[in-house]
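ARCHIVE CARD
CATEGORY: sequence design from structure
SOURCE FIELD: tokenized fold
FIELD CONTENT:
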């Protein structure tokens, strides 16, 4: 199974358009140790021809250009994307759907009822798309046992579990969390049993996630912030990381401590905010991750399981 990281940054990307924090300024100036990143998305394939897209970021057109494997050019109009799984309804995971409106068939999208509600009410992208290629919606019912397959994607199956993060600000349930606002996905190659656990938004590793993560060959999880008060300390927000659904890496109960429970899987961070010091390869924070054997994903990274 092939996993291609299309975008490793959180919402806003890196650098963020209006940000002059040390990281954003540094990457604009070409400072060694910093590299630009597009917004949160991965693609997964068994054969390298047919792919499942996880999330559709605002940077999707750039990502498609950077990853020609997703455009196999078998016909006048073509795409390697056979299905799209949305893990939540956030801007950085859904806006790219609008860029796919020229699709020659209805967009095959898998998401939960809660995400469907957000995308037909608070941010009605699906309604807008009904005037273009239309949406072929497949309901995800979060489950710890029921796997599903995607037509056209041979050899892979998917297990989607509810987990704690946050619904977007425009969601009817922003402050009233529902199971299904956010999911994690176990992507498995059926023939070998190899699997990836993917959850770019994750505030807490609840007990039901532990066996799934321990059993995976790689876990790719929320790497948004280093500290809970990162944006408050920089004076750019009043919100804590945990309040908006992201477990920071450092400190008690943080992602480093949580990930240290798992001995088998490769442990990889994704959805990294532009304020996070781990973006600087020469930072002490990055060195701390390296000491713990935790990897930081980057745009174009390939993982073969
Ligand atoms: C998040 O992950 O918290 C959101 O994507 C933030 C945002 O949309 O800016
Ligand atoms: Mn996000
Ligand atoms: Zn910044």
């Amino acid at each position: 199974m092939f996993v291609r990281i299309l975008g490793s940054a959180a919402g806003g990307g890196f650098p963020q358009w209006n940000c002059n924090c040390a990281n954003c300024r540094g990457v604009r100036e070409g400072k060694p140790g910093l590299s630009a990143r597009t917004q949160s998305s991965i693609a997964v394939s068994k054969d390298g021809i047919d792919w499942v897209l996880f999330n559709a970021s605002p940077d999707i057109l750039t990502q498609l250009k950077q990853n020609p494997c997703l455009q196999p050019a078998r016909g006048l109009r073509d795409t390697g994307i056979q299905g799209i799984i949305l893990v939540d309804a956030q801007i950085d995971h859904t806006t790219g759907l609008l860029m796919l409106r020229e699709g020659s068939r209805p967009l095959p999208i898998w998401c939960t009822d809660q995400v469907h509600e957000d995308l037909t009410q608070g941010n009605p992208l699906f309604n807008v798309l009904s005037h273009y290629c239309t949406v072929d919606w497949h309901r995800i019912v979060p489950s710890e046992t029921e796997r599903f397959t995607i037509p056209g994607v041979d050899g892979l199956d998917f297990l989607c579990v509810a987990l704690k993060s946050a619904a977007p600000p425009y969601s009817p349930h922003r402050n009233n969390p529902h199971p299904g606002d956010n999911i994690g996905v176990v992507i498995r190659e059926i023939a070998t049993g190899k699997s990836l656990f993917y959850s770019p938004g994750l505030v807490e590793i609840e007990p039901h996630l532990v066996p799934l993560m321990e059993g995976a060959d790689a876990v790719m999880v929320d790497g948004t912030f280093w500290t809970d008060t990162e944006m408050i300390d920089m004076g750019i927000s009043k919100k804590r990381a945990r309040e908006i659904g992201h477990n920071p890496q450092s400190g008690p109960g943080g992602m480093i401590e949580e990930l240290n429970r798992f001995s088998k899987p490769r442990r990889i961070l994704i959805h990294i905010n532009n304020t996070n010091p781990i973006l600087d390869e020469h930072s002490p924070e990055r060195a701390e991750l390296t000491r713990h054997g935790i990897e930081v994903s980057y745009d174009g990274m390939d993982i073969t399981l």
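CARD ANNOTATION: The longest strand covers residues 156-162. The CA atoms of residues 8 and 40 lie 5 Å apart.
SHELF: design records, drawer C
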